[in-house]
């Protein structure tokens, strides 16, 4: 798994380890899962990359463990090493149950059995909508992206969505060029009007901190910053007029236990 | 009953210019060898369907075989873009292709409908997304009991579905295990089907988690050892991740892509000869 | 996560007067012990759902537990009538019961819809039959792509589904194999579920053809050895065909039925005590 | 499997075997399957009892063998002994594939993969409709029967339906009290108007002979009689004004090979 290099402003150091911004996002996502698992709400629908790493880290750090579901058909996967792709044989070999892809989407996701879905994309807008389809217009694309995959139904159905994305002006936009995954749509009440059953994006974990939707306006607000990050940095790296929460706080430093577990997982 | 055929003959018989084809495989068991053979035979105007078009569809698109792509996620998993797919959509190279874009849940429901002899599938899907405006095959349907609004998508019934599996017996019964993807549904939804297999055995023995596709719903079984490479067949081979990474460089550039196709696909006669050409034979693990 | 409970406690917790219950099993793995416990606890006004209500539903109906039966085939397989079911429908004994009658295909589609979080299922079914006039839960639906007329049936979502399986681990993950019937769908469609098992093991090992129902979609797992008798659990017991035949005589007559229930169900405390009472312990084969 | 006793008029005798009327029906049904299998059309959806016996007999007598599908989820069953119930473990153990009950009805029956469905019931009417639901009225039944099971969709969808029933005035009626399985409905064109995809009841095998639908009127006509059976017997035992085909012929006597294979199967 490629790690971006550490920049002074967004890293901490514990023991001999240097903490990258990826590490920061992974550890913070794992913590959210740990809290949800403790509340009995941690059946996670995970994709490969940071979400899979975070979910597996949470499995190693917390008890009860979150339950991992991969769209390739694996239910209750407990990989001993990090899977390289969503179809990694390790996922099937360590699962409680392997089912077909149609079944994963019907009996498991659509039926409302997923507490947490992880999403990311090329663009995220202030209402938590995500674009993973196209930059520019659909008919004359500037950049054609891979497309929807499982995202639209995860966004609609999961108990809540955790977004993991780097916070940049290009990615955090006022309005997505294309709405692949529905967040809060145009704002308050929109999910309800459409009859969506899931809770939508409740937390956005970035390399700078954490954004959460304002309960009244549904607009994403910076509620946490990693150590050394400033409010100005967050605002500068956001394409909409970002609000900083009044009671903004700093995320806990990555602990030795966390980083050691992560490194162990990555080297397995 | 399935016939045991050479891949070359099976492709020649079942894949025609203008055919609607589905080559499924969810990271696991992707029928790469069959894709190469379609390129070698110079098929044109294919309507290519796949949930996750990846390298092999990138090759088909770049080689000019495809006039329409129906899909839900088109990328090189763990690596990045499909450059030939992007070049076709962004720049109409080598020619314009039509795209029909869905979500995974929708594609899965379409295959299930196709396999079930129903004209459409129902799901909770696409609601609030911009896909609805771009894809005419997404409609709303009302529950006659609750009046709820749901989404309908039309069945997929390819002219031919091609999949790869671990093995078959001499009668053409096919056995696959590990990640099953949507392959069984894709075969059952199709008018004809070709299955490439790692080996042909006298008798299929039980394997935990395995499913069997009976011979009488399969058209042709072709013995193509390692025919999923660089994808893999659980129990027979490992995914060749470095090959997926190297594809990024090959496909990024039109010229290097064309040269690769010329040398390794059109310049080879079958999958064994392709394997020697790209030097992957050493990567093939034996049946464990 | 499923709790490991005594069957008595699981039934007391999840089956209430007026509950909608499904106890599935397609000849194989029928949860007889759980049915007995429902009778012992004197539940009333149950809406009992099952594709193939057989002996255990005959017992529930005759014992007065059921006010409504939703089903598709009600007989004693290989033997003949379900006399208590017939007596209830033909003579309102012990009281009137409402019936909602479907076909197997329709019931299966209803469970699948229930397990999938959809309000209805679609099938090609019931067309031209008189069932349509008797059952309000059969409606037509039009394909939005082809304008074809198809049939819609509403999802089944029982308050509690009860099934029998071969085994579970200590965390409550359930494993079953052999004929799978509609059990997994029935569990996934239900608000709560009880699974009786032949044995509880430290760790589930792979079995060819087995499926695992994860603990977190099951409410309670109860260890009831031979709890499917006179049905069977593949790998653990054989179907007791003579018991099915003897049921015909017992159930034919109201008095002999009532006496049987009094002595063998209400007069016993659990399934072991029932087994001794009817003398079936000798028929239990051990795990092979 | 209980066999009815042999009556002089409807049995033949080969070797040491006495041929019962059940044997006659089984052997004649097996022959039909043998012919269909030779034409590549013998994927059979079978129930327990005579159909299962006939289908398994055909597997032993003919090559290519018919493919047996049981609604309990067994595809390509090759039982070595006759199954006692549709859920007999022997069926699963000897199958190419065991699938769930929902899948048998969706991916296999509904999808049109079944060439031959076997049906029977309490009543059969002159247009091949079958009643297995109720004698008398639905609300005030004289006799409540088990009900539909898989029959309505087999009747609608199978390439053709073979009915096996004893021919009696009570069972072969002018009009069924309840239409559980649709044959030709009210007559010519009715199946087509309803859009049914299967071919309907093409052959009715009884203890007296064989009835087939008149291609023009869809009415079941006696086209074959077993040895020793008279046209009068057939008419007497039929509740509608039965037509006897002009070129009616006698079914072939049960051969030694057939009866021996059947006895072997029954004693396995």
Structure overview:
The complex is a heterotetramer, with 2 copies of chain A (268 residues) and 2 copies of chain B (288 residues). Chain A is an alpha/beta fold and 268 residues long. Chain A has helices at 21-38, 50-61, 89-93, 101-110, 151-157, 190-194, 231-236, 256-267; strands spanning 13-14, 17-18, 43-46, 67-70, 74-75, 97-98, 116-119, 123-125, 130-131, 134-136, 141-144, 160-164, 172-173, 201-205, 209-213, 220-225, 243-250. Chain A has a 10-stranded mixed sheet with strand order 6-5-4-3-7-12-14-15-16-17, with helices on both faces. A 3-stranded mixed sheet of chain A has the order 9-8-13, with no helix packed on it. In chain A, strand 10 (134-136) and strand 11 form a beta hairpin. In chain A, helix 1 (21-38) packs across helix 2 and helix 2 (50-61) crosses helix 8 (256-267). The longest helix of chain A is centred in the N-terminal third of the chain and has 18 residues, at 21-38. The model of chain A is unreliable at 1-16 (pLDDT under 50). By secondary structure, chain B is of the alpha/beta class. Chain B is built from 10 helices and 13 strands. In chain B, strands 1, 2, 3, 4, 5, 9, 10, 11, 12 and 13 form a 10-stranded mixed sheet that branches. Chain B has a 3-stranded antiparallel sheet with strand order 6-8-7, with helices on one face. In chain B, helix 3 packs across helix 4 and helix 8 (241-252) packs across helix 9 (254-265). The longest helix of chain B is centred in the middle third of the chain and has 12 residues, at 104-115. Chain B is globular. In chain B, 61% of the residues are buried. Chains in contact: A-B, A-C, B-C, B-D, C-D. The interface between B and D is medium-sized, with 15 and 14 residues.
């Amino acid at each position: 798994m490629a790690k971006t290099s550490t920049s002074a402003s967004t890293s901490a150091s514990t023991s001999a380890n240097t903490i990258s911004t990826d590490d920061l996002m992974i550890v913070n996502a794992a913590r959210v899962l740990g809290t949800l698992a403790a509340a009995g709400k941690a059946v996670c629908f995970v994709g490969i990359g940071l979400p899979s790493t975070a979910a597996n880290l949470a499995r190693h750090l917390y008890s009860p463990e979150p339950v991992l579901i991969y769209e390739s058909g694996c239910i209750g996967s407990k990989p001993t090493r990090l899977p390289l792709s969503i179809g990694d044989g390790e996922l099937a070999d360590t699962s409680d149950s392997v089912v077909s892809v149609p079944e994963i989407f019907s009996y498991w996701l659509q039926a409302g059995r997923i507490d947490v879905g992880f999403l990311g994309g090329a663009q995220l807008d202030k209402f938590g909508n995500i674009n993973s389809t196209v930059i520019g217009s659909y008919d004359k694309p500037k950049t054609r992206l891979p497309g929807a995959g499982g995202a639209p139904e995860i966004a609609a159905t999961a108990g809540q969505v955790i977004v993991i994305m780097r916070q940049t002006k290009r990615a955090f936009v006022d309005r997505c060029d294309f709405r692949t995954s529905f967040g809060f749509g145009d704002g308050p009440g929109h999910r309800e009007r459409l009859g969506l059953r899931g809770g939508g994006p409740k937390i956005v974990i970035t390399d700078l901190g954490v954004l959460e939707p304002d309960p009244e306006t549904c607009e994403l607000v910076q509620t946490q910053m990693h150590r050394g990050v400033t409010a100005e940095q967050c605002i500068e790296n956001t394409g909409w007029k970002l609000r900083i929460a009044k009671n903004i706080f700093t995320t806990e430093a990555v602990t030795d236990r966390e980083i050691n577990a992560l490194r162990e997982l990555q080297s397995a | 009953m399935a016939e045991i055929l050479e891949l070359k003959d099976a492709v020649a018989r079942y894949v025609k210019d203008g055919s609607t084809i589905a080559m499924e495989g969810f990271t696991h068991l992707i029928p790469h060898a069959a894709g190469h053979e379609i390129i070698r035979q110079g098929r044109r105007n294919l309507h290519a369907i796949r949930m996750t078009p990846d390298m092999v569809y990138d090759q088909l698109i770049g080689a000019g075989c495809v006039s329409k792509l129906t899909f839900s996620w088109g990328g090189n998993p763990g690596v990045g873009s499909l450059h030939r797919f992007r070049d076709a959509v962004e720049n109409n190279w080598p020619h314009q292709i039509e795209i029909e874009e869905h979500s995974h849940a929708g594609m899965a429901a379409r295959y299930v409908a196709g396999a079930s002899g129903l004209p459409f599938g129902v799901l909770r899907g696409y609601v609030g997304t911009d896909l609805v405006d771009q894809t005419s095959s997404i409609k709303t349907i009302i529950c006659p009991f609750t009046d709820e609004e749901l989404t309908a998508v039309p069945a997929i019934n390819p002219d031919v579905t091609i999949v790869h599996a671990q093995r078959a017996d001499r009668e053409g019964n096919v056995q696959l295990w590990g990640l099953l993807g949507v392959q069984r549904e894709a075969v059952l939804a199709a008018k004809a089907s070709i299955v490439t297999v790692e080996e042909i055995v006298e008798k299929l023995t039980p394997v935990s988690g395995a499913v069997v596709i009976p011979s009488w719903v399969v058209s042709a079984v072709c013995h193509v050892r390692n025919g999923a490479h660089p994808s893999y067949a659980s129990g027979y081979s490992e995914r060749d991740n470095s090959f997926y990474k190297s594809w990024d460089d090959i496909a990024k550039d039109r010229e290097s892509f064309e040269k690769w196709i010329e040398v390794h696909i059109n310049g080879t006669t079958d999958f064994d000869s392709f394997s020697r050409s790209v030097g992957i034979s050493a990567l093939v693990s034996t049946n464990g």
